[in-house]
Amino acid sequence: MKKLRLVEKLTDIAVASVGMLVVISVIVAAANPNYSITITSPTGGNVFNPVQVSGTVSSTNFVGQLSQHSVRIIWGDTTTTDLTQDGTHLILTQGIGKTFTGTFTTSTDLAHTYSTTGQYTIQALICHQQCTGAEGAEAVATVTVNVVTPTCDLTITDVGGNPNPTPNFGLLNPGQISTSDQTIVLHNSGNMAITDIRISGTDWDVSSSFTAAATHYSRSASQDYDTAMRPIPTTPSDESIGEPTPPFGLAVGDSQNIYFKLGIPAGQAANTYSQTITFTAGC
């Protein structure tokens, strides 16, 4: 019997290699913008008309263009003032990337005058595009002030705080100089700084050499009459109590002692004499 031989034929199959391109994408969200604004002046408390406002601003990842930013001042009495980047009222400097720092000020030309005294809350807004109110601002700063009428007031007491002091040198002989100080105290009892205080006095005896200058004064105690104290000038002349380096002022609530000594001219007739000393405050 004839045997059949089965022969398997293997067929080579060429498999082509197919490259698959996968595109992976991601969207990186922009960082949130961050703004800050601070009012540096006024800091609160009493202020006088007209009121100026100044401060600083900054931002990271700011929105839009630098030139699109402005500051609005809301004065608290229904009025507002917009500050634009004019090189004076609002100055913004761009840093690296989307960052800026800057300053703002109303200065004197945009200062605000309130029609009535009282308490007001001032807001400063940093805005992108147009400021439409505090709710549309990128950041808000506030300060509460009390608008008051300025009062320049200098009061005089003795060292015990009693008003209307009457220093008394007692009994002195012709040619004698008092040895102990007579002291009064000047107080700034107003609500604004005193920038200079001036002094003058009347003559003790208009018919002799016993003039206003016989009284010497100093801002320091126990000074030598001839070498360390100054003669009081005659009314209507005057001088700053800051001499020899005027002016001399007092901050609100501050005080300053003034010390006096008296020299009696030789040959002065026996009598009881008095002098009026005037202090004039400038604010």
Task: Summarize this structure as a short list of keywords or feature phrases.
mainly beta; Immunoglobulin-like; five-stranded antiparallel β-sheet; 17 strands
Write up what this structure looks like.
The structure is a single chain. The chain has 283 residues and is an all-beta fold. The protein has 2 domains: 34-147, Sandwich (Immunoglobulin-like), CATH 2.60.40; 150-283, Sandwich (Immunoglobulin-like), CATH 2.60.40.10. The chain is 0% helix and 35% strand. It has strands at residues 34-41, 45-47, 54-60, 69-74, 80-83, 90-94, 99-105, 118-128, 139-147, 154-157, 182-188, 196-201, 215-218, 230-231, 239-240, 255-262, 277-282. A hairpin with a 5-residue loop joins strand 4 and strand 5. The N and C termini lie far apart (142 Å). Mean pLDDT is 91; it is low at 1-11.
Topology:
Blueprint: E1 34-41, E2 45-47, E3 54-60, E4 69-74, E5 80-83, E6 90-94, E7 99-105, E8 118-128, E9 139-147, E10 154-157, E11 182-188, E12 196-201, E13 215-218, E14 230-231, E15 239-240, E16 255-262, E17 277-282
Parallel strand pairs: 2-9
Antiparallel strand pairs: 1-3, 3-7, 4-5, 4-8, 6-7, 8-9, 10-11, 11-16, 12-15, 12-17, 13-14, 13-16
In total, how many domains does the architecture comprise? 2
Q: How big a fraction of the residues is strand?
A: 25-35%
Based on secondary structure, the structural category is: mainly beta
Low-confidence stretches: 1-11
Topology as a string of helices (H) and strands (E): EEEEEEEEEEEEEEEEE
